[in-house]
Every structure is written in structure tokens, then in C-alpha cells.
Predict the structure.
Amino acid sequence: MLRTKLFAGLLVCVAAFAQPLPMANRPEDAGFSSKRLEKTRQAIKANVENNQVPGAVLLLVRNGKVVTYDAIGYQDRAEKTAMKKDSIFRVASMSKPITTVAAMILAEENKIDVGAAVAQYLPEFKDVKVGLEGLAVKRAMTVQDLMRHTSGLTYGLFGNSDVDQLYRKANIFGAKSLADMVKTIASLPLLHQPGEVWEYSVSTDVLGRVVEVASGVDLASFIEERITGPLKMNDTGFWVKPSAISRLAKPDAKSNLPFSDATQKPGLLSGGGGMFSSAGDYARFAQMLLNGGELEGVRILAPKTIALMTSDQLPPTTERHTPVAVLLGPFGPVPEMGTSFGLGFAVRVDAGRNPLPGSVGDFSWGGITGTLFWVDPKEKLAAVQMVQASQAVLGAIWRQTRTMVYQAMTN
């Protein structure tokens, strides 16, 4: 009898450990309709059947409790491997909020000055020029600029300007280390004057290097010690543990993006796009943000820091109609959509103009691999959808997800 009780107790402990957050007794207790949530699931199933995505994991948390946690379709369609709740995904640019939180931890410790020049931490940026003409900067690029993508840097992946072409020729993502990548970036001209244009860019990769310099440890170690470890995000990092490789989700088609081997610690720790995570892990991160910087008694950041990060950080004079901003549509920081950008996230600043449901003050970001998350503080909602899909369907999939989640909310 004692052995049976011990075994039962062990199962409960294992289940509790595996569960990312407490479960609501039923969706209705959290203001969701079970019937309407089924419509959400059916929409995702249709995406799988139509070969738009191999599969997906959707995790919704409201009032701190899991409303629904669905694994649909295939983790690997070619191998007929079913999607699992704990499948692991390349989250691409959903790495950016984590790296930004890392920098803000150091800001709270007086090791990073958000208003200071980037050159204070990375001297290679001291004499950077603008454009092929070699124009002098009107003001220094700041750490805040890195966090809100107003640094003047670019990606070299989305535009076709002369500077973008230089980035591609320099093969910055082929660098052997983050330090080497950043030195190469600093040797190239800026695309814009710092502070004048929202240009999606390698800013967060440079920010990751600032974190390394200010902390004295590599970015992976800092994030593990100060964020993913304390938050029990055991499947989140820059590579996948050997014991977890069987849970790695794969897209239907081979990606042409510059990704390194998932099984090895990469030389280049890309804080802008190099991380892996699971829906359960990322939901813990999102819930920490929703809670004002704390989860289950572990405080990562102060409430005022979270409030700063999720506020509108773009001055009215900032030009935002850049290729990626326009491509993102309702998810980008363009005034026509009632959205702007904070420190690490897009932020909704107006109730109207956007074709998608949400609330003023909600903040979000996604990854080029298909992943998406958002936090709606007004509704006390955190939503994560993990999927590995092609760029061609991202906009449609993300719009569908927002719409189908909110249609299931009844109060």
C-alpha cells in the first residue's frame, strides 16, 4: 500500500513538473467557451490538412491558469511523428524579448545604462558612419536604440539597399562568434541615422554582445543563469540537449535560413534569432511579463521595468514604413495599424485601425519560423502558438490565431 501511495505521489509530482502552469478546471472558469475553443482547434487542424503547417502547439493562459493546451498535427510530417505538447521549436525572433530582458536585468544592476552610447560597451562602434557616403552620425547609437530597432543597423536579409548588399557580402551570420559578428557589423556603414527610422535589424544581436561585455559571461550562460533557470524553462536555449532532440519539431520543407546545428552549442550565440523553446516554457516567460516581472515567487525584473519595456518607445517623428514593418502589417509598428514598438516587443497603442482583436497595451512578437506570442494585460491573457512554417503563410497563420483565440473568449 505504501509503495502504491509513493508511486501515485511520484506521478503527481512528475505531472506537476511537466505542466507549465496551473490548469483551470474548465475553460468557462477562465472566461472561454469550450465550444468556441473547438473552432480554434479545427482551424489549426485545417492548416495541417491543407499542408500549410505540419502541426502546432497552442497554449492559452488566463488569470494565471492554463485554459487550453493543444498539440495538433505532426512534429515531423515526413516521419509521421505526432506533435507533442512539449515539442521543441526554433523560435527565431522570439529570442529577442528574452535577450532584451537579459539586458534590462543588467540595467537594474547598474551594469548597463539604457540611455548610454553603444560604443561605451562596444568601442568598435565609436566611429561608425552612415551610408556609402560615409556621413557622420548626428548622434550616437544608444542601447535604447538597439532595444527598439532605431539603431540605424539593418539585417541584410529583407532589403536590397547598398548597405543591405554589403551585409550579405560580409556573411555576418557565418561569423564564428558573437564578438566577431559584431566587429564585422561595426565595420559596415549604418543604413540610417540612429533614432530616425524603425528598421528591423541585427540590433538585438548587438544587444546580446552588450550583455556579454557588461556581465562578463557569454549570452547563453547569462540567460540560463538569470532567466531560463530561475523560470524553470528547461527546454529553452541556443541548442537542444541530446535527450530532447527527439522532441524537435521540423518544418515540411527545408529552411534556407542561416541556422546552425540544433544539437551543438553554436559559436555564434544569436540573441536576435538563435534560440529554441517549447510552448510550455515560453508561456512561463510570457506569464512572468504579465505578472510585472515575477513568477511563482521568482522576480526577474521590477514592475516599472516591465512597464517601461511595454510602453510606446518610438517618437512620433520616427519613420516606420520600412520593408519588414510593411510586410508585418497588423503585427508591425506602423501608425495605420494602431501599433508601435517598446523595448523588445510590438505594442498596441490604439483600439482601432488594426484588423485583429486585442487591447490597448497588449504586446507581442513572432519568429520567421512561424512562432507567435502575445500578452494582453487588460484581459490577463498570455498566448503562445508554436509552429514551424514557411514565410509565405506566416501573416495568414498569425492573423488566424489572434482572431480564433479571441472569438473563443466570452467574458
Residues 330 and 355 are 7 Å apart (CA to CA). Residues 2-18 form the longest helix (17 residues). The chain has a mean pLDDT of 94.
